[in-house]
Write a sequence for this structure.
């Protein structure tokens, strides 16, 4: 088990992070250092190809990994005037925090992973895919 006396904890991360890992670890007595190793740059628009695919109902699902991604997707869909074109698309969200950012959109369905982990989200996608194959 890791103890505060074990030494400093390094957190390699993006320039924007969710949660307060620093606060939690510091409160527990750990020495914490975050090192920014990549930068997430927000897109200002969807590509023309994605806009056409959404309008043509060629996209079946959208995977959203963070609240920031959810907010950005919603803003870009609004900017591209796609808010009325989402009714054939399922949203797959990593957590309830992500779901809250997009649940007001007119999706076919909104699904939330059982746990906020990549494995749980992939399991959700797999179960949804098997279910949709059985319905056809």
């Amino acid at each position: 088990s890791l103890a505060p006396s074990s030494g400093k904890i390094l957190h390699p991360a993006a320039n924007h992070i969710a949660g307060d890992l620093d606060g939690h670890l510091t409160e527990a007595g750990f020495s914490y250092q975050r090192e920014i190793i990549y930068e997430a740059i927000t897109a200002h628009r969807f590509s023309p190809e994605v806009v056409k695919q959404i309008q043509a109902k060629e996209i079946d699902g959208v995977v959203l990994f963070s609240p920031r991604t959810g907010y950005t997707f919603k803003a870009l869909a609004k900017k591209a005037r796609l808010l009325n074109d989402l009714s054939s698309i399922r949203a797959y969200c990593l957590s309830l925090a992500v779901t809250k950012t997009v649940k007001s959109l007119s999706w076919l369905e909104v699904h939330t992973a059982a746990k906020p982990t990549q494995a749980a989200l992939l399991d959700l996608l797999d179960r949804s895919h098997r279910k949709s194959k059985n319905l056809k």
